[in-house]
Sequence to fold (917 residues):
Amino acid sequence: MRRLISSVLREPLVQLIVLGALLFGLNAWLGGPAGNARPVIQVYASDVDRFRELFGLRWGRPPTGMELRGLVNQYVREEILYREAVALGLDQDDTIVRRRLAQKMEFVSQGVDSGEEPSEEELARFFERNAARYREPARVTFTHIYFSRDRRGAAADRDAKSALTALMDRPEPPLRAPQLGDPFMLQYDYAQRSEQEIADLFGSDFAAAVMGLSTGSWQGPVASSYGLHLVRVSEHLPARQPTLKEVRKTVLADFEEARRKEKIEAFYARLRKRYRVVVDEKALEEAPSSAVAEVRQ
Amino acid sequence: MNSRFVLPIAILLAALMPWTALAGGKTPGFNPQRNAYFGDLHVHTGWSWDAAIFAVRTGPEDAYRFAEGQPIDFVGGGKIRLKHGKMDFYAVTDHAEYLGILHRAQDPKDAMARIPLTQQLVGPDKSKWIQAFRKVADGYLRNAPLPELSHPQVVRSAWKEMIAIADRHYKPGEFTTFVGYEWTSTPAAQNLHRNVIFRGSRTPGAPFTAFDSDRPEDLWNWLDGLRAKGMEAMAIPHNPNMSNGLMFPLVTSAGKPVDAAWAEQRMRNEPIVEMTQVKGTSETHPALSPTDEWADFEIFAQTFVGMASEEMRKEMGTPLASEPRGSYVRDAYKRGLELQDQKGFNPYKFGMIGSTDTHNSASCMEEDNYFSKLGIATDTPQKRLAKPPPGGGVDFGKWSASGLAAVWAEENTREAIYDALRRKECFATTGTRIRVRFFAGYDFPKDLNKHRDMLKEAYKTGVPMGGDLIAHPKGKAPRFLVWATRDPTSAPLQRIQIIKGWMENGEAKEKVFDVVGSDGLKPDPVTYRIPDNGATVDLKTGKWSEDKGAAELSAVWTDPEFDPGQRAFYYVRVLEDPTLRWSTYDANKLGIPPRADLPKTIQERAYTSPIWYSPRKERG
Fold:
């Protein structure tokens, strides 16, 4: 909390508000502007440095003495107008100011502890809690022979079946045999593909069917979006849980995002506790006004 | 050798192929006959100034994760992800001008956030947003960078980081990333944009921006200079449809007639054109191709005048409607034939690709998964379908869920894919993964499309898409091999067409030939038209008729009007059966009728790079 307060206090806007409030109080205590102590606007060396830096970023060179003086005058002018605006309460009921301040507050909450790497333990716990997210899908390696319905028409099915019989009759069926079928636009051999990846290439029915084939023999015909295929699966890799080491980079990024969100929520929850919120529940239950209903259409 | 052993040995050898290929330093899946790979070479993230203004916060890291199939944050809340398969290759091409500045300005703690103009653009106070946006846009159109947003060291560091991110996501054999950026030249609101794509990650310290020069010739000089230092890159023009005739001109930026040196330099640096994307398709325009029944397709013939201030519009005097001549690829190919015949050079012998131009870090070419491309300007169906107020604004309803870049390459690596783009062995699609092969040769058998090893033969005795066919010594007519397959996640194919352009009496002509149709439908010998196959699509569910159309179509075709003395080009257009246009899906989501002024359905298509035929004599 101390770090939070200190980081809040480091925000220039917060500094200004606090300073403004102090000066305002001091001014009132001293009897208003008629008093002999007029409010002070102090331009510090750090302010001047900032003006220099901004000018340099913008123009690619340091400002001249006159330009720097101009920036100071501009700052003083803005400061005076700002303080008077606050004194008049112009910041109240201003949606933009409110939203901006609320947004700054969220940024302040995020800034706490930022840049700190999580410990291995923290990361491992996060990884375990979200294990399902990192699970790798089952994969299959297969080769196929293609029988085009566009080329063979109704004969495609019969041709595929008789090719399968011929393959089975061989004492040692070949490991791949694309030449027994039609030329195929995509590849004949696919290594370690997931069901989703196969579906993107061949259609989902084919993908589901191939995932269910046993290894080591020619099977089919299996229908795809292109036609019929005899398929030989040589390898099934079951779905597996990777180790943290393998997916560390992704887990770390997810962890940091989760932490950022948690922090904002926790920060808000702490603030929320300080308030008692009273909502007119009856108003919430009333039928929507006609204006709202119109927008919905 | 006993013939009984030949087959098993051949099979054994074939089975060992992948491993021997690996041993030679090649990646798995290496195919000497080349595989089709699909990608997007035009992707903006929140690091582009305009994307940041439209509240996009995702960056290159998110973009590559999206391309690999993972969900990423969407500007309107929630997540977006690819529905119909991940990308094989991807290039983040953020605008080089003001690169990364407004992205950094979104963080209130960054120095860039302390500049009042950046806060008007990306801060929560939107009261001065329009004025601020116009100020940046006007500066762009005047090619006068705003000092408030000019921070070269920020651009350099963002550029360095983009390269590092691209390198990190590159997985040879699985997923290829390219280092790239967009050179955003928009003189007087006319689009001359190019994406610069590097072959490797050896790149200069900073990109050459439109603020350095808005003349394409200066960009080419810069690229030539890089090449001399061993840094290979190309520029890819996009949206010629919005160039008001400037993309494929007959005069240089300096107003002189184009010449041989200009043509050579252009071709060296711009071998391909992105001709279909969200802001319309630039194949041809109905006014240019009145006899092409498919020419009125996803047309967006506007300049950028709509984004300028009133004052700037008067100053420029550019019309909103973009002049079709010089703005479409078919017209450019024809100009190229004329220049070649009349002056002996052709600056317009380029190949075709599609891409999206998304500004959400995420390709948006899927009709049934379309989230448009411009951050909070187009994040809901209501906004995408809204008609602009009279006299101004962009009609987002006319934007397209398009497109994809596709290449025929031996393997999924930077080198193989880049080299395929360079030799123009590439094709464009309007968003689906139609695969199409196209070859020409004199010795192709009439039934080559039925041969099992047709590809091997075609490569051996012919030229693939993007190639040149020199006249046969005896004036023989070439044969063309075409072969296309459907996208398994979209409708079947309806027809394959060949579009021919040729020189006749000193003038370039064009004609569309239907070559092969689905459902056994044949071309009419006089009109060359294949009748419609009657395929339909349900306007509510999007379900298409699976009983019509073909999973694959192929043919060996001879030009019935071939004249060996006429210079010509031929390219292929493949048409799918109709599916629902994104705007109909969006209307269905809202439960409202589709907009009457927009097409309800779309025939997704693929376009190959042409094959050019040169007659024996210089002049035809």
The beta strands of chain A are 139-148, 189-194, 218-223, 227-237. Chain A is about 55% helix and 10% strand.
